[in-house]
Every structure is written in C-alpha cells, then in structure tokens.
Design brief:
Elements lengths: L16 E2 L12 E4 L6 E3 L9 E6 L7 E3 L8 E4 L5 E7 L2 E7 L2 E3 L1
Parallel strand pairs: 1-2, 2-4, 3-5
Antiparallel strand pairs: 4-7, 5-6, 6-9, 7-8
C-alpha cells in the first residue's frame, strides 16, 4: 500500500451526536457529545468495523458521570465525569481500544 501524507487540518465531518440522556452511542457518527445530567448513567457502544475511530467528549455536566464498558478491550471501563473529558477509541479485533483522551479508564 502507498503512504499517505497529510498537511493542514484534518476535519472529521458531519454533525456530532448530542445525547439527550444516557444510552446508545451512534456508530455512523464519528463524534458524540455527552450532555449535562445530574445523575449521569451508562453508555452503550456496539461493535464497529475494523479501523473505525470514535471520539466521545463530555461537553457539559450537572454533577453526574457517564460510564462506558460495553465492548471495551481488556474489560475496561471509561468514566466521563468532568467537562472536557474525552476518549478516542479504535475498533479492532472485535473490541474498542482506548487510544487517547482524558477520561478515566480502569481495567
């Protein structure tokens, strides 16, 4: 395969998914925003396709936290509890791998 050289900004297209409450994270939408919620809750993320990248960002909080553990490699749990918490996930080998971000990850 040939190498790809990028210069300038890389823009991830489309409108971000804005969750109104805890629940399912959209697979076709590359970016998901987590809302303010006083109680937080559990997020779900189904299996993706090999090489798929997903970005999740907590854009507001009213004191609640969100957890994501479904399909995370190593039986991990990703916790979002502060504005600015982020997770960059890569889907490969039937699981989502946390490859970056500021959200708390425990195994």
């Amino acid at each position: 395969a040939a190498n790809v050289t990028l210069s300038g900004n890389i823009n991830v297209g489309g409108t971000a998914q804005a969750l109104a409450s805890p629940g399912a994270i959209s697979l076709p939408t590359p970016i998901t925003h987590l809302p303010a919620d006083a109680t937080g809750g559990t997020l779900t993320l189904n299996q993706g396709t090999t090489g798929q990248v997903k970005y999740i960002t907590m854009v507001a909080t009213s004191g609640g936290s969100y957890t994501l553990s479904a399909n995370i490699a190593g039986s991990g749990t990703v916790t979002f509890d502060h504005v600015g918490d982020t997770a960059q996930l890569l889907f490969t080998s039937t699981k989502w791998y946390v490859v970056g971000g500021t959200a708390n990850v425990t195994y």
